[in-house]
Amino acid sequence: MSKKPERRRSQLGSLSPVAPMSGRVEVEQSAAEKPATIPATPPKVVAAAKAGTRKKIGYYGTQEDDTRIRAAFIAARNAGKHWRTLSDFQLEAVLAQVAQVEAELNGGRPFEGAPAHTLSPGRPLE
């Protein structure tokens, strides 16, 4: 009877896609080849994500709006902007609009907030 061949071990077995520098060898790049550094996520988005309080909020838009939003997000991400997900991109845009409305209508102070289900569901009656 022949002996089973020994199992070959991969050189990638000790590497982790999550842990940075867990056995990886970094190759030096010239300044022209280095990717742009990505700044940290804004504190409001990070705080909500860490607290586990993020909740899905939907809206309606046309297909043209949808493709335009996605294209803007992809272009911004490729340019080195700090958004990691489309959700972060949209959340920051909405919060910027909220801050503008608060400045115009509430003297720059945050609104107290409205509980869920205070808006009427569906389209407004005309």
| Secondary-structure class | mainly alpha
Count of DSSP strands: 0
Approximate helicity band? 25-40%
**What integer value in Å does the Rg equal?**
24 Å
The run of helices and strands is HHH
Low-confidence stretches: 22-27, 33-43, 45-49
Describe this structure in words.
With 126 residues, this protein is mainly α. It has helices at 43-51, 63-78, 86-105. The radius of gyration is 24 Å and the shape is elongated. It starts with 42 loop residues before the first helix and ends in a 21-residue tail after the last helix. The relative contact order is 0.08. Mean pLDDT is 76; it is low at 22-27, 33-43 and 45-49.
Secondary structure elements and their pairing?
Layout: H1 43-51, H2 63-78, H3 86-105
Keywords:
126 residues, mainly alpha, 0% strand
What's the quick description here?
The chain is mainly α and 126 residues long. Helix content is 36%, strand content 0%.
